[in-house]
Amino acid sequence: MPSTRVSKQLNAGTYFITITTRRWYYVLDRYGRWNLLANSLRWFQKNKNLKIYGFVFMLNHVHLLVESDDVIGFIRDFKSFNSKQIIENIKKYEPNVLKLFEAADGKYELWEKTNMPKVVEDEKYFYQ
Q: Could you tell me the pTM of the whole model?
């Protein structure tokens, strides 16, 4: 089983990453939320030198095949930015769903803490 976080020693590189919504709730597939995710990926490509080899947006998770000099920073910033954007979208279109993402401190947590990063070490795994 892959680690739940990217190792600091292996921060630069190519990774297969899975980012999942809390409680695996189906929330990403409506009200333009996939567009929010796609737009932020484009921003990271343009401004943070992120290389995207593939991505899949699912109902409750995102698969990414990416390369970066700072994978840890990318994951942190991607999750933080999109969490804010999607929570605002939920407030606007589905306010009753918000309670599913409410944390103990009254704030909202959209994503699970794990990212399931897998270092892409060879060409066979990359193409798989």
A: 0.88
DSSP the chain: ---SS--GGG-SEEEEEEEEBGGG---TTSTTHHHHHHHHHHHHHHHH--EEEEEEE-SSEEEEEEEES-HHHHHHHHHHHHHHHHHHHHHHH-GGGGGGGB-TTS-B--B-S----EE--SHHHHH-
A 10 A CB-CB count for 76 gives 13
d(C-alpha 31, C-alpha 17), whole Å = 24
Q: Are 14 and 71 in contact (CB under 8 A)?
A: no
Judge whether 91 and 68 are in contact, CB under 8 Å.
no
pLDDT, one tens digit per residue, over 74-87 is: 999 999 999 999 99
